[in-house]
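Researcher: Next entry in the queue.
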Amino acid sequence: MIGALGLIVAIPAVIRHRQQIDIAVVRRLVIGSLLGVPVGIALMTYVPTTIVLRTLAGFLILYGSYNRYQLHRHHVQQQHLQSHHWDYLAGIISGVMGSAYNSHGVPVVIYGTLKKWPVASLRGILQAHFICVGTIVVISHILAGFWTIQVLQLLGLSLPLLLVVIPLGNWVSTRIDSRTMVRYIYDLLIVFGCLLLYKTL
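Model: Structure for this entry, 201 residues:
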């Protein structure tokens, strides 16, 4: 259900940020994601969830904390992973995490911060990727038999809330400068990592 909600949220966001979307980058990310989706399905089936989630949680907390510290020191970080070929690897990881744990956006956010994409470009690429990968993930979950009547009912109940959340998110994002937004991204990665860790306790 989370994957379906993310897909619904991404559609108006892509329309809004369409000028900042780098189609070539999105295409490479999606190709990688197509390769990663079946791996994620297998991961969810054969590998204990606790091990994967704790590993991911630890990485997110460390990565977010390190970069938050660098920002606090006003240290200018260099761009990493400059080759376009890294787009495919980021897409593969996104496909794995998306199909297994509905977390396909997290690898792209981390990759975007490593590439030092401008915030506007990160938003556009992220949302376009959400639509493409979200569609793949939802279809893969349906084919794998993960969707039930209860899931559809919860999805229907959640839709009215999106009518409030989407405009509110747009309003907030227009009032935050780029540097502050980057800081919030790292904060959210730390929070997400802590939530994942708490979930496995």
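Model: Residues 2-199 form one domain.
Researcher: Noted, moving on.
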